[in-house]
Amino acid sequence: MMTGNEIRDAFLRFFNARGHQVLPSSSLVPDDPTTLFTTAGMQQFVPWFRREVEPSFGSVATVQKCARTDDLDQVGRTARHHTFFEMLGNFSFGDYFKEETLRWGWDFSTLPQSEGGLGLNAEQIWVTYYKPGPGEPYQEDLEAKAIWEQIGVPSERIVPLGKKENWWGPVGSSGPCGPCSEMHYDRGAELACGPECTSPACGCDRWIEFWNHVFQQFNYQEGEYQLLPSPGIDTGAGLERIASLVQDVPTNYDTDLVFKLITTTRELAGITAEPTEEQLLALRVIADHLRCAAFMIADGVLPSNSKRGYVVRRIIRRAYRFGRNIGLRDPFLCRLVPTLQQIMGGHYQELNDNADFIIDTLRAEEGRFAETLERGEELLARLISEAQAKNADTLNGQDVFTLYDTYGFPKELTVESALAAGLTVDEAGYATAFETARTIARAGGKFGYAAAASLGQEIPATEFLAYQTLTAEAKLLFLLPNEDGLTALAILDRSPFYATSGGQSTDVGSLTVGEIIFPVLDVAKDKFGHLLHTIELSDNDAPAVGSPVAAIVDRYRRQAIRRAHTATHLLHWALQQVLGEHAKQAGSLVDADTLRFDFSNQQALTSAELAQVEELVYGRILDDEQVCIMEMGLDEARTAGYTALFGEKYGAWVRTVNIGDDPYSRELCGGTHLERTGQVGYFRITAETSVAAGIRRIEAVTGIAAAQWASQQAGIVSGLSNELKVTPEELPIRVKALQHELHEAGQQIKELKVKAAAGGGTGGPQVEELNGIPAIIAALKDVDAATLGNLTDQYLDRIPQGIVVLATEFEGKVLFAVKVSKSLVGKLRAGDIVREMAKIAGGGGGGRPDFAQAGGKMSEKIGESLAAARAIIAG
């Protein structure tokens, strides 16, 4: 039996032997700004099909990782729905067309495995071709039909279908598209869904579409189908589907590509018997979503509340929620990553390179969501209470959807809880809110990067000279005074100024007209190629359109910006050396001798890591290495390993920045740079902070700013040394001693508080027994939250196999704390108990199964809350 890895390798060998260049999978984050994720193998080749760039090869073969989240609710419920899948593909950009691709598709499918094929039964393969219905484009594809007949497919197994089934593309709102011909596998009449189930037109699970051959003939643009300059071939064969056929298993989830994840999850959940239908659904969802989330994270997509980040967050949380359904409450997705590496790490090295980062990201997101679910449960309880107080019999549909969408709280659990309270759910309101959110999400998938138009094309684009010179003789083409009367917008025919772009700050300088100097305060660029100079007007006059202008850039600021920008590239390289390849750029700001660099990493950098990064950057500065700028085709740059940053727009030609004789830093960048690294001079990291979940920020200074910063720090150290009467070298020892003294004093104060709260050494509250469980349940006076938590530890030492429940009023607030011994966690959960207590006192909270804290508002309810805890413990 061929494994999934063997099928993948066989496909690439088969087409490489037939003249195809084998290329690696592109990232799940596409360069195409109209789509969120890579959804097809041809996506990276759209510019080739459109001939926006000349194809580097006439024909290629790839195995592309893909992500689709349109049918999230179907994942795990059907045999073949996934959020992550692999697409085998062979592509032609003019080398061949229909006859070759259909013949090769048939051969690879039916040749014995010993001869490099899949060994599928030819008599079970059916094919379809395009036949348009009313109002559908193009004409019947009789050419494809004839080719299948020549191959030897019986006419009864050649089925014509319309646009829905046999017209493909475009990906996104525009792009290459055309008719297609699909290959289907008949899994047997016993799987027929009814008497009419006689061909792939049925679409049920009897018929498995496993290979689609798309004939790229058109470019769909602004509602029109335009012929492509050269027709091409784009095919897609789902690896998981093919594996299910070759391995003769009923679903994709039973293939070796997925099944090991399911068995590992079963072990974590302790499911030893045959899984129930509900358990099987959860296991499948978890396996699928783990694959998708891990690959997204490996490609730099981190959980957040916007666009791609929202998708990966939703996938992780959906998987975690299904895990709770089978008893997995602690983070578990992170524990499945090693299994995924075993299955797929051999082909996708990024899984191995970023394994620790993927694990840390999943663990952090699962932990955050566990807390979120606790809050969701509290919100549901409040919604039910509010509805009952109003004598309502229905929960608001929008509120129920908010529970689901914001808190990930399952709708079915909300319905169940509502029914238990004598309420129903407003299904219509829920459906409306759901559809509204879906519409917004779809709209959010369309990215708009075009700058707002400032001026039309009637004014020629500005000739950009910033890379060549700091001064230029130019002509004033346009002038528009601003409303403040003090500044104006000026456009020149040519300009040496660099406009704010790609994180680099603008140049400043001056425009001289005759004897009058007009300071340049800012420079921007519009989509028509105009450089928009904001100038300060003279008291006497404004420059006249048509005037000759001497444009001069502030050379000191430009040089300081160049220092900071080149240092940013060195910093990016150093971070990946210290932290790993996952430390990808997530944003930057380059100004005069200062820089800010955002990058993906879960934890704060340690002092040792920061020192190592700084040392690596300094080493490259001292090496005084060459900084080489080259222009090349975008596709050539990608093939050579340059990474395009998402959010940046690139033309057919791009500017590359290479540092070192054998370049170790190679990035696409349109900014201004130094000639050699030694010109950076001085570099110091001044801060490392968190920006968002999984995103860290480093701030640094270079050149003169770094020297000034170092001098300032030295002054601070000198002042502290004088104040503490020690030498600078002795400062760390003295500070550590002071910290120790402060800690000891704090501990003594804490012990006194605990002793006072416990009764001044009288032994504290009495032990009682509830349902055979030793328990200490007490209300204490005026105890802060930290002391209350310490008391639960102290009291549990008296009853190691018991439970401690404490309540207090402190500074007008009600506080609860519950501690459960490890031996009782399976029977009693601290979080559940404290939550019920808090509800009674008008508050909320939660925590771990062994320890939890909560708060409330009504001190008069403390006794009732303690009574509720007793009732829960007593069973």
Mean pLDDT: 86
Count of domain modules: 5
| Helical amount | 25-40%
CATH topology of the largest domain: BirA Bifunctional Protein, domain 2
Can you tell me the residue ranges where pLDDT is under 50 for at least 5 consecutive residues? 440-454
**Biggest sheet features:** 9 strands, mixed
CATH C-level class of the largest domain is: Alpha Beta
* Class from secondary-structure proportions: alpha+beta
Q: Could you say what the CATH architecture of the largest domain is?
A: 2-Layer Sandwich
The Rg value, from CA coordinates, equals 33 Å
Strand content range: 15-25%
N-to-C CA distance = 55 Å
Report what the structure shows.
The protein has five domains: 254 residues, 2-Layer Sandwich (BirA Bifunctional Protein, domain 2), CATH 3.30.930; 178 residues, no CATH class; 91 residues, Elongation Factor Tu (Ef-tu), domain 3 (Beta Barrel), CATH 2.40.30.130; 155 residues, Threonyl-trna Synthetase, Chain A, domain 2 (Threonyl-tRNA Synthetase, Chain A, domain 2, 2-Layer Sandwich), CATH 3.30.980; 114 residues, Roll (Diaminopimelate Epimerase, Chain A, domain 1), CATH 3.10.310.40. It is an alpha+beta fold and 875 residues long. The strands form seven sheets. Strands 1, 2, 3, 4, 5, 6, 7, 8 and 9 form a nine-stranded mixed beta sheet that branches. Helix content is 37%, strand content 24%. Helix 9 crosses helix 12, helix 12 runs antiparallel to helix 13 and helix 16 crosses helix 17.
